[in-house]
Structures are given as C-alpha cells and as structure tokens.
Design goal:
This protein has a single domain, classed as Vaccinia Virus protein VP39 (Rossmann fold, 3-Layer(aba) Sandwich), CATH 3.40.50.150. The chain has about 230 residues and is α/β, with parallel strands linked by helices. A 7-stranded mixed β-sheet has the order 5-4-3-6-7-8-9. Strands 1-2 form a two-stranded antiparallel ribbon. The longest helix has 16 residues. The structure holds S-adenosyl-L-homocysteine.
C-alpha cells in the first residue's frame, strides 16, 4: 500500500501537499508499531506522544513522503532530524512526566521538542543556527506548540535563567558532558546525551545526578551531528 502511494505521487507528479492526511496518519501509526514498539519502547506516554506529532510537518517539503521512514532526514544547513526510534528512545530514557521542566539542546526541526511538549508544558530548547531557530519558532506557532520556548544560542551553556531542569536532552554529539548542563540538572534529574568523537559513532549516555554525585550509564551506540561551539550564551 505504501509503495502504491509512492507510485501514485511519482506518476502524477503531485506534491506532498496533496498526499492525503489520512495517509500520513496511517504511516505514523505504522512507524510507532514497527519501528518503536517493536524495538521495545514501552512507555505509553512516549508512544502516545509519537502518535500525535505530525513528523511530516517537521521535514523539508521534498522529504515529506519519507517522514515516517526508519532513518534520519536532512533538514538543511548540514543538519538532520533524528530517526524516529532514537527520538522515542531518548524521550523514554528522560522519563519526563507532566509538569516537569525539560531542556533540549539542538532544536533542529523542532520535532524532538514537540514530542516532549506532548508530555509536559515546560519545554525549553536551544539551537545554534539562527535560520533554524527562526524557522522553528514559526513552525511551533503554526502547529500549535505555543508553549515551547526556543532561543538561538550555544546550548553548551544551558539556560541558566530557567534552571534547574528535571531532564536535559542533548541531540548533538558532545566530546564531553558540558559542565554547565550538569550544574543545571535537578537533583534526581536525568540527562540524555550522545558522547564521543563527533565524526564517528558515539555512546548514548543517561547521566543521573543523585546525592550530589553524577553517574552515567551507556545505552547504545548512536551517530549524531556534532555539538559545535559558538560564542552566544
Ligand atoms: N533535535 C532535532 C535534531 C537535532 S540535529 C530535531 O528533532 O530535529 C542537531 C542540532 O543541534 C542541529 O540543528 C545543530 O545545529 C544543533 N547544534 C549543534 N551544536 C549546537 C550547540 N552548541 N547549541 C545548540 N544547538 C546546537
């Protein structure tokens, strides 16, 4: 069925705009079932959030029909929107509950932030590329994610004004865990962060702050675009 739709789109040369909404809904349901539930993401909160966010609205027009496939996609400026499963896994590991305050580093398309916003009303997100921040602010407005607070800065420094956070989700590869982010993590909070060589495979870590001590657990190998350094705090 999926192939048939792709074929129809190609044959008629119709744009993704005329791809029926119900078809996106169907593809999204399949994404959750075969890519996420099948890989053992169990949290109902996370699965529900993944079922709600219209991922095709977060990718460039020309990739809309590919939005629900099992891989990352380019979003311009050399950046990517993560594979759906990785977004679901990171969200599950962060164990965010309603009302908690979350910080995301690396807004990109805004998709991960939107998934978090389906779970809690307090989502803060930082992006270093000005154009992406501008785009994403419009996207959040258009899609009704009006409570997400986004800013253009170097996320290495976190967002002191709103700290401490119950969870911090870093979606770019860091060579080390940024100390300001550890500082801004609440006692008992969790940080999910890919750490390792920026151009190779990194380790997805869960970093916990408990009784003033920081412990980290290695979950799986991942590949993220690098966390670059800027000057804007
Ligand atoms: N979470 C995104 C995908 C992340 S791609 C989504 O759901 O679409 C990683 C993003 O991190 C890119 O947009 C990149 O520009 C951004 N980034 C890289 N270094 C950064 C930094 N120091 N601070 C904030 N954002 C950064």
């Amino acid at each position: 069925m999926k192939k048939i739709w792709t074929l129809i789109v190609i044959i008629l040369g119709i744009s993704a705009d005329s791809f029926p909404q119900t078809e996106f809904d169907r593809l999204r349901e399949q994404m959750v079932k075969y890519q996420i539930e099948a890989r053992d993401v169990k949290s109902k909160t996370v699965l529900d959030a993944m079922r709600k966010v219209p991922r095709h609205e977060f990718v460039p027009e020309k990739y809309r029909t590919e939005a629900y496939k099992d891989h990352p996609l380019p979003i311009g400026y050399g950046q990517t929107i993560s594979q759906p499963y990785i977004v679901a896994l990171m969200t599950e590991l962060a164990e965010v509950t309603k009302g908690e305050k979350v910080l995301e580093i690396g807004t990109g398309s805004g998709y991960q932030a939107a998934v978090l916003a389906e779970i809690t009303d307090s989502v803060y997100t930082i992006e270093i590329i000005t154009e992406l921040t501008t785009q994403v602010k419009h996207r959040f407005q258009r899609l009704g994610y009006k409570k997400i607070v986004a800013k253009n800065a170097d996320g290495y420094y976190g967002w002191k004004e709103y700290a401490p956070f119950d969870a911090i989700v870093v979606t770019a590869a860091a060579e080390h865990i940024p100390p300001p982010l550890i500082e801004q993590l609440k006692e008992g909070g969790k940080m999910i962060i890919p750490v390792g060589h920026p151009l190779q495979v990194q380790d997805l870590l869960v970093v916990e702050k408990k009784d003033g001590k920081v412990r980290s657990k290695n979950i799986i190998p991942v590949r993220f675009v690098p966390l670059v350094r800027g000057s804007k705090k």
